[in-house]
Amino acid sequence: MAALSAAPAVALSCLPWSPADAYLQASKSDSVYNIIAGELQFDESLLPQSHADNPNDTAPLTRIPAQLSGKMLDGKYFSKRINVQAVLEVECLGPWCGGMATGTDQMFFAEQRGQELVIRANACGGFVFADTSEVRRQVLDCHRGKACAPAMPR
Question: Residues 12, 96: contact at Cβ < 8 Å?
Fold first, then answer.
């Protein structure tokens, strides 16, 4: 009789997360965040890849130089044009890594760290969202003091 053994199945479980969640977390943070609708240009070949033989060998943080252009939330609207250098920080939890495509329309919650503007992407999404009318509405409602409900009560 042969016995079969399988490695335990492991899955990443992410809590629901929305632009309102990101806004609320950023507003409670000691850090300064800039909310920008635009595009991030970077070398996609620098994104971390999970190692097939040992996925836990993936570095927990990869920093990628980038160029961010678009409009920053200034007052009540996305009206301040910017074109600045930024850093994309891609976080990995074992074999699961954040990521994004270069040059796509996104909504970024970019953390100001001294002179550096940092965009974080983690395995559960993080502070980057597709720039859709629904995402803009959620962010603007939060910013203007209207309804700003998280995706899931916390």
Answer: yes
Main-chain phi, psi angles of 123, to 5 degrees: -65, -25
Euclidean distance between CA atoms 7 and 5, whole angstroms:
7
What are the b/e assignments for 54-92, b being 16+ CB within 10 Å?
Answer: eeeebeeebebebebebebbeeeebeeebeeebbbbbbb
Q: Where are the beta strands (DSSP E) in 9-99?
A: 32-42, 61-74, 77-93, 96-97
Name residue 68's beta-bridge partners.
Answer: 40, 84
Three-state secondary-structure class, residue 102 = coil
CA distance 105 to 95: 26
Per-residue pLDDT reduced to its tens digit, 54-88 = 766 778 899 999 999 999 999 889 999 999 999 99
Q: What is the pTM of this model?
A: 0.84
